[in-house]
């Protein structure tokens, strides 16, 4: 097995090895079972690419504070460590790192969408 070339590639591979990533087609079922879909794309990117009406928008720079049930800055959805946070970015790279960061906080069900927003759009799911 060949290791990824850069440190960030290794970090991404390590993050993804811990996640049970969701294919875009499985996102509606996750929402039905109570998962919280979180769109971490910056406003300019959401404006350019499109919104996901079913998603809660939390930009990446405040994600951990909003999802941590022990944080004073938590959202009402952050009720405990068992919340299934499904993180969405544009292509599924930043979201993998973000979901791993949520797992590091103890949010063990955090994951992301394989292929991100572009995969949702290609599958015609939620967009």
Describe this protein's structure.
The radius of gyration is 14 Å and the shape is globular. The protein contains 6 helices and 4 strands, in the order ααβαβαβαβα. It is 39% helix and 9% strand. A 4-stranded parallel sheet has the order 2-1-3-4. Helix 1 packs across helix 5. It has one domain (21-123): Rhodanese-like domain (Oxidized Rhodanese, domain 1, 3-Layer(aba) Sandwich). It has 127 residues and is an alpha/beta fold. The model has no long low-confidence stretch (mean pLDDT 96). InterPro entries: Rhodanese-like_dom (IPR001763), Rhodanese-like_dom_sf (IPR036873). It holds the Pfam family Rhodanese. Residues 31-125 form the Rhodanese domain. This is Rhodanese domain-containing protein.
Strand residue percentage: 5-15%
Provide the succession of SSEs: HHEHEHEHEH
Q: How much helical structure, as a percent, in the residues?
A: 25-40%
The CATH architecture term is: 3-Layer(aba) Sandwich
Report the CATH C-level class: Alpha Beta
Summarize the structure in short.
Residues 31-125 form the Rhodanese domain. The chain is α/β, with parallel strands linked by helices and 127 residues long. It has helices at 7-18, 27-32, 43-49, 63-67, 94-104, 116-123, and strands spanning 36-39, 56-57, 85-88, 111-112.
Key traits:
6 helices; 9% strand; Rhodanese-like_dom; alpha/beta; 127 residues; Oxidized Rhodanese, domain 1
Topology:
Elements: H1 7-18, H2 27-32, E1 36-39, H3 43-49, E2 56-57, H4 63-67, E3 85-88, H5 94-104, E4 111-112, H6 116-123
Parallel strand pairs: 1-2, 1-3, 3-4
Helix pairs in contact: 1-5
